[in-house]
Amino acid sequence: MVAWEERAESFATEMTRERYLVGSGRKERLELDPIYQRYGGLFSENEVRERLSRRHESPPASRYLAEFVAGGYLGNRVKVLTQRATNAMLAATVRWDGEDIPYQQVWVLLANEPDWHRRHSLDRLALEVARGINPHRKERLLRLHQEVQALGFDGYVHLYRDLLGVDFDDLSSNLDLFLEGTEECYRSQLHDLLERTGVPPEEATPADLQYLLRGKGYDRYFSSRGMVPALARTLQAMGLGRGDDFPFALDLEPRPRKSPRAFCAPVRIPEEVYLVIKPQGGREDWEAFFHEAGHAEHFSHIDARLPFPLRVLGDNDLIEVYSFHMQYRLTEPSFLRDIVGMPSDEIQPYLRLARFGKLFLLRRYVAKLRYELTLHRQGPEEAPQAYRDTLGSILGIRIAPERYLEDVDDGFYSAQYLRAWMFEAMLREFLRHELGERWWANPDSGDLLYQWWRRGQSKPLDDLLPEIGAEHLSADALLRDVME
Ligand SMILES: [Zn+2]
């Protein structure tokens, strides 16, 4: 048993290290094959069947182990297809203004392109790339569905409902109220924003939102040089800081192939954690940096003595609570004033933009969850239309069906994000109530997180609700958060 867990942990380390090396631009191609070959024995059919049958014993560790083994088993079965799709995306370029732009860099250009005609042209080139990769992604999805059936589960939704202990249909219908409650406010703000930038509302696409939410006018408060010192001040205020001596490694070096999106790679927990970013500045870059810093702080603080399932594995909903909690400090007026240094008269207009950005994202994820339930129940044949219609009607903009597979994460990560958003809004209300408007500068708020971080994932998210004075996870606090 212990030997098995040691090998499982080495596998997790090697996988995360591979993702770190590729994402940070130190390695050109993703190679999962050799790792699975070395550790294939961990994910034999017998092993996965046994772990799945014992998933309800000694919770939550046995459930985390079942999810790890099932994920590894399925990942092993589709590894070649995963590599093919990922490497095709990494190698793809689009020809723009006489230059070959890496596909992954396109969204940075879209966010900075003020002419909407040009934005739409560039986006159409990117959609061509997505269309080219879709056959690989579709084959991979069909294979995943087959493998799940072969394990004796009545479909992909069923398997993940069991592994995560979340009823996705319940979650989706609970969020209907959130959609209804924000509908009017969302539509009118969207209309105003589009009008101001001259995009005809019936032509608007996600690329326009990317540009609008970029908030270039606020760049002077969110410089690329200012973000690391701001994080140091934040941790200091929480009583967790030691100047800029972070408990994780900061990878700030600009490399040509480095991912434009910040990410955290917990290679060995808690002692080897990387926060990787290509600092560009701007409000969203800061939000991404603070988000990933929340992950890095969490992983670096976990008690090294905890066993593998509670230290390295766990539910992503709780993991995302920590990162959102760090990120959404950037929507607290007192934080913007004291840490970011924004003048008082700019704070309200800024918050309107930031809250709308969050509302857009939340509605997008509710739509994604609904769509993913359809995709995994009915298969990919009619899915492009379902993707276009579901996201289009909830977001009120034009959605290109070509991203119907690119925009899907494995294992219902969308549901985990939604649960994390709900919990985090409840946590922030609780702290504000207990500690006041400047809760984030009270060491008690840091202490609460420190205690939670230390125990890794010994408790799943729902079991933490009583600690913030709540009985059920609900979207009420989230609704207040974006409607304030
Ligand atoms: Zn995250």
Task: Describe the 3D structure.
- This protein is mostly helical.
- It has two domains: 2-93 and 139-165, no CATH class; 171-483, Neurolysin, domain 3 (Orthogonal Bundle), CATH 1.10.1370.30.
- The protein contains 22 helices and five strands.
- It has helices at residues 2-23, 33-39, 45-53, 61-77, 79-91, 106-111, 116-150, 156-164, 168-174, 176-197, 206-214, 227-237, 283-301, 308-311, 316-327, 333-340, 344-378, 383-395, 413-435, 443-454, 461-464, 476-483, and strands spanning 93-96, 99-102, 249-251, 263-268, 272-276.
- The strands form two sheets. A three-stranded mixed beta sheet has the order 3-5-4. The chain has a two-stranded antiparallel sheet with strand order 1-2.
- The mean pLDDT is 95.
- The chain binds zinc ion.
- Zinc ion is lined by residues 291, 295, 320, 323.
> What CATH architecture of the largest domain do you see?
Orthogonal Bundle
Q: Tally of extended strands? A: 5
Total separate domains: 2
Low-confidence stretches: none
Do you know the CATH topology of the largest domain?
Answer: Neurolysin, domain 3
Compute the number of helices. Answer: 22
Q: What structural category arises from helix and sheet content?
A: mainly alpha
Which descriptors apply to this entry?
two-stranded antiparallel sheet; 2 domains; Neurolysin, domain 3; mainly alpha; 484 residues; globular
SSE map:
Elements: H1 2-23, H2 33-39, H3 45-53, H4 61-77, H5 79-91, E1 93-96, E2 99-102, H6 106-111, H7 116-150, H8 156-164, H9 168-174, H10 176-197, H11 206-214, H12 227-237, E3 249-251, E4 263-268, E5 272-276, H13 283-301, H14 308-311, H15 316-327, H16 333-340, H17 344-378, H18 383-395, H19 413-435, H20 443-454, H21 461-464, H22 476-483
Parallel strand pairs: 3-5
Antiparallel strand pairs: 1-2, 4-5
